[in-house]
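Box 3.1. Reading complex inputs
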Amino acid sequence: MAGPSIRIKQAGESSKSTNTSGDDSSHRLVTFLQSQSQNTLTRLYQKPSSCLSIFRLLRPLERQLVMNLLWLEMPVPAATMAAWVTREGKRPYHDALSNLARLHILPQSPVKHALNPTFKSSMRQAITGGGSSGSFGVLTENDDKHPPPDIESLDAYALERWETILYYMVSSGTGQFPTKPSQGVLYLLQRSGLMASVHGNTLQITSAGFQFLLHPPHEQLWELLLQYLQMAEERQMDLVEVLSFLLMLSATELGKDYSTENLSATQKAMLEDLRDYGLIKQRTATSRRFSPTRLATTLTSSSPPLPTSTGTGNGSQAQGFIVLETNYRLYAYTDNPLQIAVLNLFVTLKSRFPNLVVGQITRDSVKKALANGITAEQVISYLITHAHPQMRKNKPLLPVTVQDQIRLWELEKNRVKSQEGYLYTAFASQADYEYVLNYAKQLDVVLWENSSRRCFFGSVEGHANIRGFIERRSAAGNA
Amino acid sequence: MAPPAGRRVGDDFVDDSDSDVSITGLDDETSRAKAKGKGKAIDRNKKDKGKAKAKEQPYAWEASYSRSWDTVQEDERGRLEGAVQDWIARGRRRRLLAPAAAIRRTIIRHLVLVLDLSSAMLDRDMRPTRFDLMLQYAREFITEWFDQNPLGQIGVVGMRGGLGERIGEMSGNPQDVLKAISERHKLEPTGEPSLQNAIEMARASMSHLPTHSSREITIIFGSLTTCDPGNIHDTLDECLKDRIRISIVALAAEMKICRDLCAKTGGVFGVALNEGHFKDLLFELIPPPAQRAVARPGAQGANLAADLMIMGFPMRLPDTSPPSLCVCHSQMKSEGFLCPRCLAKVCDVPTDCDICGLMIVSSPHLARSYHHLFPVKPYAAVMSLEETPDPSKRCHGCSVAFRDTPATMLGAAGEGMSPLGRYRCPECQNDFCTECDVFVHDVVHCCPGCGK
Amino acid sequence: MDKPSHLSVVIDLSLTQWTLCAQSTNPPGITLQDFLSQLLAFLNAHIACKDENTLAVFGAFPGQSVMLYSSTGEVTTTTAESTDANTYRPFRTLDSTIMSSIAERLDSYDGMTEEAPIGLVGCLTKALCYINRTITTALSSSQGGEGAAASVDPRILVLSVSPDQSSTYIPIMNSIFSAQKLKVTIDVGKIFGAENVFLQQAAHLTGGAYVQVERADALLQYMMMSFLPAPAIRQLISVPTQDRVDFRAACFCHKRIVEIGFVCSVCLSIFCQPVPVCSTCRTKFPMKTLQRLRDARPLAAPPGNAPPRPPVQKNGTTTPARPG
């Protein structure tokens, strides 16, 4: 079969493929909400905090449209609204409208548009304050016995929890046995298909899990939470309560103590799970107060959910720690076992120093990553997001040679392309063969032909036609 | 591995150009670094070039690889703060040296840019070639020139094949001028240059200008010869009579006639050592020249050049207004400017109204140059808070908190710097931080405290 | 496209003008209290749009300019923290900080210093200083050069009720040029009073919106639609720009706003009448020119400050069209 045609993407394209929240695509949660019933959503919109958090997850144009409509008492004629956007904005405008309609924020209507009344009143309440829903969380009174935890300890706690989960995942295949996360987390990991049990009971990371590891923390968090939401439905938990609690958390303030008294039974049950994920901290399992960590408060923003991704807590390293040279050598300024383990997925590590790991990207190391189901784009985007500030002065950021080579290694893997189809053989005569072949060529379904052996291979789509053609012909010949 | 962090910073500090065009800093640095790295010896005899320029800058071909990062002083904690402070302090001192009173500048400027297009420009001692570098710098020069001289006009003349060649007519629109030199293949260097022909052509194009504008010729000259039809000293005398200033940036070596042209007409002559120096020399010609108080021979006192002009400030019509005919092209158009005297519609400003002859300018055009006239008074560095009874806690500009304890200053570097990071406006007695001090004097030209 | 943006708001707090505005019936005015509550809703909406959006509020008081609030916490008040579970906490801190710092200032006035011109220039320059600092700190905290600079996306909103102060012509123009240099958009909302020539130019030169609020009771809707969209999204949502821009200047001698002026050729100072000596650069002008200009001069300059433009051609037809 013919060799693969090699297409080398421009360096700029790579960033598009990563699904960060800043891109044109909607947020994961928004997509999830769109699949919910109108009833569920309307109940959700009763809480001002939920409205505010969902509003933040919308795309800029959608946000602006909502804001434009929010303070109007009368519905707006569709024609008037269409005049708000410029000519370039037409397409995004229609996308935005249909998106909002699927969220039941702005019901679809050919004539006049008005916001969902529940959403409108809650959103107004969120912005102007007031009301009595108490949806932004009830702070506990300060008492001297239990001062609210300081921000550093919250960060350390969140980081420890989160890295435990990731580190468990990454080292599951290596034979090491790091600290196990709680049973609930393990179940969630298994349910989301990030890990699977192989020999009866030991959990092993799956290829989806490897891909997961290379995602930015924000996406990882939402991926797990969405899984949690789906599980909640099965566990007979009220989805609206689960959702509104999550969204409330995202509107709380870091470093404050909140009271559990106003929470419903479902929400109280959630506290334990969220504690395991590192979203909230409680002094004891039965404590009547909880404090959200940075993981929770940044759910609806794009600021980094984890303060510092290193064990030593050196602030500058949060921005990136990888230096990659044109000779495929990689220097990672880190001593964090998780980061080293993740790098180990696609780098041959050579030497290790107290704060530095030196390695080399080789064909074998990348092949290993590819075999685990990681794609070249994911490797590249991981390198880009974690590039050292010094690297960011380069343009393009990563050496082009290395980027291209990683993609080429991926293409090598795809050298053989399989396609389903039918082999047509045993034609009675060369004329017969050519007659059918011509017909198949007209349909453009021939994948391969060999006239000396009088056979050709056609794709699945063309089979019905070809068979019909042959049958008609042989019927005519017999007649 | 990545280069040591201090390096780029360090280069800026050793860069000792006195040009007050701040934007050149970074580009210079890179181009100079390039020149250093080249390390290529060109065996041309240009030894007598060194008179006109700063001694510390080496020629492009004899520069050794200087380890600029070694000259940066780190303090005991290995930081570069001392060097940064030194750099800021230099800027402050320069401002303090500048006269506080408003200088008179000739702001309505007319300039003919003469480009050498002779075969000497194909020399490769400047990268990529003298010609390409000249075109690149000429473009930057024109942009920056119009930025600082909004009411000026530039014409372009080329010298090649022994002739002067008009490349761009006098125009006040930067786009027109840039377009004139945008097509490289039309400017391909060839033959001998002729200074006399080019100057005569430039002089002719400026002969009709009103008396209150300055007339200047700036020549970029790469050749060591000139091929003239007559006596160039006659041309020089004519220029003196017309009060045309000639400035020359030579790329090869100093020539007597070039120096004479500049010296006698009151212009500036310089020989470029390397790419960075070339740009410095060229960009030094951008700020409006201060008018000499001493009358030059041939000019009967500077005041005669001054005049009062009548100008109109138009109203701009949006492109949604009903279309009407414009007086300049007789075309139906929606947008345009209305002459305040006769209400005729013109397409662009600044211009002269075709109907009533009024000079129409938009006020931002004029206002762009006012900061030359009313500079902000330099702020005084606050050395201690003992005299101030109730010091403000935050910068009056950006509200950043001041530090409480004085920072330790490194000897001479701290001269003119406040150990508290406070700089006080002499007018309104408000304190400002270092960043705002620089920003107010270099960009805003208006003190946030007293609004002056 | 979805990146955080910075908004600096300059509020005109001239009590005289606000009193006039509240009394105005045609068009119906708005009281300062109503205005502030609508403004707070707008500011909350800006913060609501994105968690990383930043905000700074400056108050232009008579003869004074004060920073009322900034999201980086330069202004703190002593208001006790209330535990209100019904409001998003950042909104509450924002609202209470602004209200208490305004009240503090206004209490200390009592109409005494009311005659001083408002500190609009001070506010503008402070806003620029603040933006300059936030941009430079964003730059120095790495994230790699141009990327961070672009991500701040700053703009300034001026909400004005006072008429032009011609004495501030040069400082305002200087602020506009520095705004252009910093790539700051200046939006202008004129809530009460006649068109403001200088602010019109500010909005025009920086590519911002100039909105003359005609129905002050619908102010919030005006602000949501015209001033909330960040510069990046304005390519998609059309924002009202002004009809016509007045390019008039103020003369240096009497601070009048002129449409035909006399300009010194040396320093470009503008005068409303022919003068023998330039007051800025002390250049003497030739008598010949003075005589000529006096003869050719249009009718005596109007005595009032900032005369309104003659109401020329609403439909643009008075333009003399050339025959043929």
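In summary: Residues 1-23, 308-317 of chain A have pLDDT under 50 and may be disordered.
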